[in-house]
Amino acid sequence: MVRVLGEYIIPGEARPMHIKTRDGTQLHVKDMGSGDPVILIHGWPLTGDMWEYQTLALLEAGYRVITYDRRGFGQSGHPATGYNYDWFAHDLADLIDALEIDKAALVGFSMGGGEIARYLGHYGSAKISRVALIASVVPYLLKDEGNPDGVDPDVFDDIKAQIRADRFAFLQSFTKTFYGQGFISRPVSQGIMDWSFVLGSMASPLATLACVDAFSRTDFRPDLPAFDVPTLIIHGTSDKTVPIDPTARAAVRALPQAQYVEYEGEPHGLFATAPDRLNSDLLGFLAGESEPRSLTVAREIMETEALIAQPPLFP
């Protein structure tokens, strides 16, 4: 039996909508399906609902899918403290324990990759089967003497200034960069843009500000040796929100055993701009395939084109 907010539930029957963490913060949880559990960890400043395309694909493939809103975001509690990766890792650990999960796959998008890194660094992989970092901030985003490819600190100072001045105007502008929206380029519908704005506006303004420092200034390089389970890294080459050089490309250099694929031309929000490709790669990885499915398909196309381009053997 599991105790959740003062009531007992029977695993596999009634499932909690909230769990209480060790400091009393309530996390809003969606726990659906059966089979091997997959925990999806959302990015800033959205909620667990950002995983709509992936949740459906995973449920249809027979997985148990768990999403939750980070503290300070969505329908979770909005405390005044705890907006750092040590607390985020504790929250994830409390979620895993409350739901009595023995082994789970973790999939983290953007700042959600940091939860995975810090969780593994603190708690190890005893309860983790495999992990995926999608457009993640791991290993270290900030530019400094030891990280020359990082993002200039002034960029994050400007983000915080815009949030303080008019958080809602910032969110409207941010979603355009997030999804690679331009004068001609329209990777997602206006509906998805509006939906993302609503998800972002649900966050606590304090959490929205504090997490800029958390995801930009936290150095996850000391956590990388704890990645001792199968790992998948996916990133878009046109990501202007979390640039690929200090993140995914640095991560795969530190984790050469990881599966790695770059999505050419994709922006940060590739969960919505390239959902079919991402879903296919995630499903293949979760099934234990040796390389991302999209790489296999790309190689087969290239081999076929090379055969077609060959001159005939006989005139």
Detailed description of the structure:
The protein is of the alpha/beta class and 315 residues long. The protein has a single domain, classed as Alpha/Beta hydrolase fold, catalytic domain (Rossmann fold). Helices cover 41% and strands 16% of the residues. It is built from 10 helices and 10 strands. A hairpin with a 5-residue loop joins strand 3 and strand 4. Helix 1 crosses helix 9.
Low-pLDDT parts are 1-13, 301-308
DSSP summary: helix tally? 10
Please estimate the helix content: 40-55%
What is the strand content? 15-25%
How many structurally independent domains?
1
What would you say about this model in short?
By secondary structure, this protein is α/β, with parallel strands linked by helices. The protein is built from ten helices and ten strands. The chain has helices at about 50-60, 85-100, 110-125, 155-180, 190-200, 205-215, 245-255, 270-275, 275-285, 295-310; strands at about 1-5, 5-10, 20, 25-30, 35-40, 65-70, 105-110, 130-135, 230-235, 260-265.
Keywords for this entry:
about 325 residues; alpha/beta; Rossmann fold; eight-stranded mixed β-sheet; two-stranded antiparallel sheet; 10 helices; 10 strands; globular; disordered N terminus
